[in-house]
Amino acid sequence: MRISRSTAGTAFVSGALILTLTALAYPSMLGVENAASGQDRIIANTQWGPLTEADRDFVVRVRAAGLWEYPLGQLVLQRGTTPAMKEAGEHLLVGHGRLDATCRKISTDLGITLPNEASPQQQQFVATAEGSTGKEFDSTAVTIMRVAHGGIFPTVAKIRATTRNSLVRELADQTNDTVLDHISVLEKTGLVNHEQVSFQITAPAKLPQEQTTPPPPQAGAPVRVLPVPEDLKDLQTVAPNPSYGAPSPSPSAG
Predict the structure, then answer these.
(1) Is the pLDDT assigned to residue 34 strictly greater than 60?
(2) Where are the alpha helices (DSSP H) in the chain?
């Protein structure tokens, strides 16, 4: 039976994406075990409000997402075959660069250790896209990123609705705007298969924790920076740079 080029491409992308959504299911903070009390356990009282395990994990997840989506955005900008692909690459670099700046800022304020490398699984996502060229690259990269961005929405909404920490709340706002911006530019490429995306989001595969957990940073290693390219610093998106808010009332005030 003869398989068309488009069918083969779809099969390739499907195989590449079968593990995608488990990359979004990060365990608790690097090197720290979850307590039996769950993600709502308060692990620190700060001037910006109480910090829970869920808050801490969210900051780590946003940082980890940038560690693989930023280099994939670089590939999209370099290899994309259409103006819409180039635009998507620009928005990915700017969006994740700005989110990274926020994560690094609030991680210092809140005492959160950030990963410096993506998980083995996430690194494979980048390698999968990197191993393709032309239209196949466009389709593979767009589908991987559209599934990832679509899958993170519920987590962002839950953190935004429940966190009592103003810095985490601000990061959630910025992440929500950034994800929506990225979904929009990815869909403008005309390459999103919505049925496939829906299937991947609702039926993620299960992987061992060591495949989905970013390795802890080496002792004394500087925090890796994901910079917004100089020629893109003025790029207008729906996710502008945030302004860090004033401290919340004392945690004891409830």
Answers:
(1) no
(2) 5-17, 53-79, 83-110, 120-130, 134-162, 166-187, 194-202, 209-212
